[in-house]
Amino acid sequence: MNKYDIVVIGGGPAGLAAAIEAKKEGVDKILVIERDRELGGILQQCIHNGFGLHVFKEELTGPEYAERFIDELNEMGIEYVLDTMVLEVTDDRYIHCVSSAEGYQIIDAVAIVLAMGCRERTRGAIAIPGYRPAGVFNAGTAQRYINMEGYMVGKKVVILGSGDIGLIMARRMTLEGAKVLAVAELMPFSGGLTRNIVQCLDDYDIPLLLSHTITKIEGVDRVESVTVQKVDEKLKPISGTETVYDCDTLLLSVGLIPENELSRSAGVRIDNITKGPVVNESMETSVEGIFACGNVVHVHDLVDFVTEESRRAGNAAAKYVKKEIVSGLEVMTTQAKDGIVYIVPQEIRLENVGDKLPLLMRVRNVYHNAVLSVKIDGLEVKRMKKRHLAPGEMERIDLPKALLEETIGKCITVEVVEEA
Amino acid sequence: MTKDLVCIVCPVGCRLTIEKDDTVEKGYIITGNSCKRGIDYAIEEMTHPTRMVPTTVKIEGAFLNRLPVRTDKAIDKNLIFEAMEVINQFTAKAPVKMGDLLIGNILGTDVNIIATRSMEKR
To answer: Using CB atoms and an 8 Å cut-off, which of residues 201-260 of chain A contact chain B?
Structure first.
């Protein structure tokens, strides 16, 4: 049986950063397992720019960002396998995987880093009524067809969902000669970055229909039209506001879900809100020696933040191998209060915290001139003024270790306080 | 003439209003910005708007059909579709290295089209 110190599952940005960092921390026997035909993950289809502003201080496209990490992985001599599907991870850290080249294999690991990323929600998940013709695609699937495989998916397009993938695909389809009729968004605000609304929609006069959804798909063999309808405050379609768009394609950009089948097989506890593993300060899951990072833990909007989080996971996995992680200590928890949807990590063992503890979170609504208030057992320890908060933009608060040591408590909470 | 813009320099997304006024030094009056970068953005957006263009070209002899490319600097916004026509006529041949220059001085501008990933020969 093959034995490794660290096995990283997934060769996207999270897995690459974790493996490189673990190697830098002095662990030699590392294996990255990737199910696709090459490393890089979803970055390889994200050909647009906007990546790397935090990590490299320059603006790169997805493939460029990926290639820098792949080159570094190769230079460091880290082992990886492609076209290999992991079928099961056990709580005693055996990995069952299969590939055409090697057949069925069981790999023994001292530590595992889960870096499987996320998957798109589909039409089934949002239950749009109507026919089931060809021409209904997830935005990310269409992105792969167009940018990598070289197939155009349609000519007259309506997009549901204004997250960044939906916005980016509106521009992409337009540049490739399609007509994007509208982007409909259920919520009263876009989940995407403002600069993407400007660069991808406004530049090409594509209307963004806020508080609208799609209530019907027509067409037997191919999409012929979709019905767009306004929704009320309770997100219920308002009758009499139906508009029919003649189109041949519907792209869905309606959210991402962390891909945790393998985590579950290992008995890892999953957070109901993030849909990813509950993790501690070391990005370790509820199963000892199994770490997790990137979009498998919670969906990020910037790959730079995935890299940063994954470096911490890789570093901690290496420390675990070297038996430098302290466990069995008193555990503090984090809790999302008013206006905050979730906080990662969920558990903290102070002894393993470096100089500072980063808390990553998402807010529930759009706020202007609000304050993020951090409390330990009800006592405020930090206030951050924020001119602008939006659900589409992840917030990060760094708590200095010294602050945590002098304020002894059990529960760290964060809430949004709106100014009167 | 007055125009409303959303500043895209940073995630704050200030709503700017820009108005032509030849009596001031810069020729425009800008309101709604929270920092001075908003002023530069608004003036550039009024006088000479430019955009980065990431897209793909055909590639022969590689394991994929498309090679991702981009402009090496921002190009005049009005030239985007014309540039796309030139880019779509181009076929790359594997192997390609990230950063390779594929189309030089597109449409007579100083903008080049470069490969954004390496692709080996199949």
So the answer is: 202-203
Mean pLDDT confidence for A176-180:
97
CA neighbor of A216 nearest in space, from A197, A239, A191: A239
Would you state the CATH architecture of domain B54-115? Roll (3.10)
| Nearest CB neighbour to B117, from listed A48, A64, A146 | A64
Average pLDDT over residues A249-272: 96
The predicted complex's ipTM stands at 0.90
Question: How confident is the model over A26-55, as a mean pLDDT?
Answer: 95
Closest C-alpha among A329, A222, A232, A215 to residue A281 = A329
Calculate mean pLDDT across residues A347-356.
94
CA dist B12 and B45 (Å) reads 17
Residue entry with tokens 């209003």: B17
Can you tell me the distance from the alpha carbon of B2 to that of A226, in angstroms, rounded to the nearest whole number?
A: 37
| Average confidence (pLDDT) over A23-47 | 97
Rounded Cα gap, residues B6 and B3, in angstroms: 10
Local structure of A97: helix, strand or coil: strand
Substitution target from A194, A199, A396 for chain B, most B beta carbons within 10 A: A194
* Nearest CB to A198; choose among B6, B81, B98: B6
**Over 80: is that where the pLDDT of B12 sits?**
no
A146/B65 Cβ within 8 A? no
**Range(s) for CATH 3.50.50.60 in chain A?**
1-120+255-325, 122-254
A364: closest CA among A340, A348, A382? Answer: A340
What order of strands is seen across the sheet that includes strand A395-400? A340-344, A356-363, A395-400
Domain with CATH 3.10.530.10 in chain B: 54-115
CB contact under 8 A, B80 and A175: yes
Instruction: Determine the pLDDT at residue A1.
Output: 64
| CATH class of the region A122-254 | alpha beta
The verdict on whether omega for the bond into residue B11 sits within 30 degrees of 0, i.e. cis, is no
CATH of domain A1-120+255-325: 3.50.50.60
Q: Which residues in chain A are contacts of B34 at CB distance < 8 A?
A: 387
pLDDT of residue A420: 66
Question: A280-336, pLDDT tens digit by residue?
Answer: 999 999 999 999 999 999 999 889 999 999 999 999 999 999 999 988 778 999 999
Q: List the single residue in A49, A146, A147 with the smallest CB-CB distance to B70.
A: A49
Which pLDDT score, from 0 to 100, does residue B3 have?
86
Peptide bond into A400 cis (omega under 30): no
Which pair of structure tokens corresponds to residue B72?
């090496």
Segments of chain A assigned to CATH 2.60.40:
329-420
Q: What is the pLDDT of residue B8?
A: 79
Query: Which residue, among A205, A194, A392, has the nearest Cα to B15 in the 3D structure?
Result: A194
